[in-house]
Structure formats: C-alpha cells, structure tokens
Amino acid sequence: MILRLDAIVLRAGKRTLIDGLTQSIEAGEMWCIAGPNGAGKTTLINVLAGIAKAASGSVSLDGRALASWRATELARARALMPQAAHDAFSASVLDTVLLNRFPHLTGWGWESDEDRAAAHAALETLGLASFASRDVLTLSGGERQRVALAAVLCQNAPLLLLDEPLSHLDLHHQIDCLHALRDAARAHKRTVIFSCHDLNLARRFATHALLLDGNGGAHAGLVADVLTAERASAAFGYPLALIRDGEHEALVPSIPRS
Amino acid sequence: MNASRATAIWIALGAATLVVLVASLAMGSVALPVSRAIGALFHAHSATPDIADDIVLTLRLPRALAGFASGALLAFAGALLQVLLRNPLAEPYVLGVSGGAATFALAAMLGSLPWWGVDIAACAGAFASIVLVLGLARKDLWQSGQDASPRLLLTGVVIASGWGALITLILSVAPENRLRGMIFWLTGDLNGAAAPWPALIALAVVLAVIVPVAPQLNVLLRGDTTARALGVPVERLRLRVHLVASIAAAAAVTTAGTIGFVGLVVPHLLRLAFGNDQRMLVPAAALAGGLAVMAADLVARTVIAPAQLPVGVVTALIGVPMFLWMLLRRPR
Fold it and tell me: For a Cys-Cys bond, which of A8, A179, B35, B66 suits A57, CB 3.0-4.6 Å?
C-alpha cells in the first residue's frame, strides 16, 4: 500500500504551515512526524486520513485519490488514532476496542467471532488482556491511550495514522508500544505514520521522519538524515546537541553559555 | 452485547409490555376478569357488544396504546439525543420541542379551542420549534469541523428557556377555570387521549429510520473525528438523528402533553442494566419507555380512583427514587 502526497499545502488562517510537500510512503516504513506545537502535525495526519482537506495538493492511496474512495472502503484501508478519545458514557474496554471493527461489520451490524478475536488479539499485543472488562471511565490517561492504540490495531488496516500515540505513556509502555508498531510495520508490512515529541525515541524506532517547522518548511527522508541536531534546532527554534555514549545517542537541549 | 442477548432483552421487555397492557384493559373503576378483557378485543365486530366490550375498546385500549406510544417515543428520543449531544443529561425536551408545543397548546386552551384544536396547536408549536432550532443550528449540523454538540445543545436550551417564559406568561394571564387543564397538560396527561394511531404510526416510522443506522450511533459516541475515520457519514447521520428525535418528541407531546422524566431516565436505566450499545438500546428504550408510561398511567387512574393523577407526576415520583437507587448501588 503506497501513500503518495503530491504538492500538499496546509494553511492555518494566514500562516502557511506546509508549502508544497511531495513524498511517497511505502509499506513497511515507519514515519515520525515531528515539529513544534501548532506546526500542522494533526492537520497533516487528518489530511492523510482523508477526513480533512489540504489547502491544495492531493493525497492518493494505492494510486487512487483519497477523495474517490468510499468512506467504509477507506476505513478498511487506513486507521486513524486521534489525539484525544471522547468517553461520555461508561463502556467496557473490549466494547471500546470492538468499535473499530465497524468498517468490517455486515448485515445488521453485529460483530462476528472474527471481530472479537481481532479485538482480543489487539488487547493482548498491548498487554491489556486483563483490562477487557474494565470500564474505560476508570482508566488512567496512559491506560486509555493504550486502549485507543489497541482499537486502531484491531481495525486491521494496512495504513496506521497515529496522532501522538505515546502521550501520557510511561517510558516502559512507550517502548512497548513502539515495539508493537515496529512489528506491525516490519512483520505485517503495514505503513505506520505517527506524530511524536520524543525525538530520541523517534530516532531509535522510526525508519523515516518528516520534520515540520510550522513556517512552510518540511524535511522528509531517512530518520538519521532528518532528525539531526542541526535541522531539529532550526525547526524547534532552540539549540540542540547530539551526544554519544557507546552505541547510545541522544538529542539534548544545549546548555546556554552565559 | 451480541444479537442473541439483545433479542432476549427485547423479548423480556415485550412480554412485560403485554402483561401491563392486559392489566390496563382489565383494571379500573369497573374491574373485569382478564379473560373478559382479552375477549373484548375479539368481540369488536360482534353484533351485540355489551358495556364491558365498550369500556375496553373505546376507553381503556386507546388510552393504553396512547400511553405506550408516547412513552416509547419519549424514551427513544431521549436515547437518541443523549448520543447526538454526547451528553447524559440530554432528554427529549432539551432542544425546545416540548416548549414550542406547550406554548401553542396553552395559547389554544386560552382561546377555548376544542381538544383537537389544542392537539393541532401543540403539533404546530413542536414543528415551529424544530424549524427554529434547525435554522439557528444549521451550521453546526451540516458543516464538518470542530465538535458541534455543545453549540447545538446551547441553542436548544436557550430556545427552550424562551418558550418557558412564554408558558409562564400564559399561565399568569389565564383565567382560574382554565388553569387546571393547563397544569395537567404541562405535567403530561393521558386523560382524553383518544387517538393513539398517529403516535403509533410515528413510532413505527422513526424506529424504521433509526434501527438500520444504530451501529453508526455507537461510533458517533466516540467523537466526530473517530466516527469520520471509521467511515460514518457524520453530518448526514447527525441531521437524521436530530430530525427523527425532534419528530418523535413532537408526536409524543401532541398525544400526551409533556410527560416528564421518561425520556431522560429510561435510556439510563437500560444503560445501567445492560450496557450502552445503541443496537440493543434504541429498540429497548422504545419498549421500556412505552411500558413505563403505560404502567404509570395504570397507577395514575387507579390509585385514587375515581379521581385521576396526571401520568407525568407518577412517572417522576416512581422514576426518581428508582433511578437514584440504580445509580448509587453501582460499584465504581
């Protein structure tokens, strides 16, 4: 499944966030979208998901423009995890995850055993098997986030679009979730695109990166070429330094010399 | 939740409804044996109808059916609006439908119109209010973009308060001898609800329009972005739900006045008991709402017989403690 961005322009009010981005994203790749607050990461993810329109340019999936896909057909091809989940009413974790099987429902819209199996497998993958009957309203922020990730996984779409999937997660679970996503990309040849503020985790797990500066500038390419100290410093407007210790590397904020 | 569990819930509620229906036919100022009450249903065209047939067929059956239909419509509309507005406090009257109906109905009573004039006025008022809210909130319903629910809710609530002021105005200028009828109408009253058929037909129509999209309602509850990403046509669905819920509330209010509490509480009771799956909940709310109002009306017309209570008083008096008990006994 190839996702193709063609001369994408994003605007917010009078500001140009992205000025003509063209890029192909292939199956098995894991892309991190990084950039400062308000740089257009969420907007871009919604555009890639086909639920928001770019100011100009087009996105195609498997050679067909997103606009020409039928809504349910598209929902079987790509899954979107929004930044925040809405829980107005009580619901069990299992039912919440099962909702993402909606594009696969047939007949009167009741889940089949296959749908249930997919939901249980997704919960298992994220270490949530024992949570299945918990009420989502009683979960902590991080637990709720993992449930949302499990929901997206059980949708079984070849393209995963995740808006800050690591927010609220502790370090251990961040690594676990990234392993699950990397597994989805490598073993199952899915495409994973996620936005993330932790540049070091991105450098370690992503294959590619897209760095936005919020003023129209965008760098796309292999993660080691894009998330460099120089480029990240320019995009975030704060000097960063790359430090090395054996095989470990980290981008850290520079200490100003006064 | 799965199809067989949902079916079991519907069958249980349907059976309870039938029991209450038969009780409604048999009980009253003239008590009839159950066999006689059921028998009357089949004597409809017999050559020699007696007084018992007459009581059942022209008084008790239409009233029980009208109670069932209006209760079903109210609980159905409440369940839909709670989903549409993503707000547990939403109820059928929250978007001002009942306020419009009540204002017009009371104005008709003030003008001494006959009962059918009052019904027509109530219906016209309900639709005036629907059109008003739809016109004001059209941007929120049709346009994609940020979450529209809070603005739609606020629009409805403000319109409802406007109607509330007009109702108070009419009550304050109404002559003493009309006040009692007006208060009964405002509390919800099945006395004189002679024609259950329009409400029953409305019930069948709104159920047929919503039941096929009930799976989409589950997704809509998760927010517009998620729903869109899962392939739900959010704007079209929202418009459909809003219109159907408004029409259901209008039909209920026209039939029986503003019966309180059923539309808010019945969907929540079902959620607390069986979970929040709209595929089960939408038909179950209709059955349970109808059951609740029919049972409450049975109480309302027998407990201090021959005098009668407004059915809305009974629904609230029974509903409040029952709901609090179910809410608070639940372990968190």
Answer: A8
Number of domain units in chain B: 1
Q: Which domain holds residue B324?
A: 3-328
Contacts of A12 in chain B (CB under 8 A): none
The residue type at A251: L
Question: Residue B230 — φ and ψ, nearest 5°?
Answer: -90, 5
- A109 and B CB contact within 8 Å: yes
The Cα–Cα gap between B305 and B27 comes to 11
- pTM for the whole thing? 0.88
| CATH numbers and ranges of domains, chain A | 3-84+157-253 (3.40.50.300)
Place of tokens 């069986």: B274
B214 lies within 8 A of chain A by CB: yes
| Minimum distance, in Å, between the CA of residue A75 and any CA atom of chain B | 5
pLDDT tens track for A53-74? 999 999 999 999 999 999 999 9
- B62-86 per-position pLDDT tens digit: 999 999 999 999 999 999 999 988 8
**What letters, b where the CB count within 10 A reaches 16 and e where it falls short, cover B51-88?**
ebbebbbeebbbbbbbbbbbbbbbbbbbbbbbbbbbbe
Q: Is A28 left (phi over 0), alpha (psi -120 to 50) or beta?
A: left
With an 8 Å Cβ cutoff, is A56 touching chain B? Answer: no
Residue B319 sits in a domain whose CATH number is 1.10.3470.10
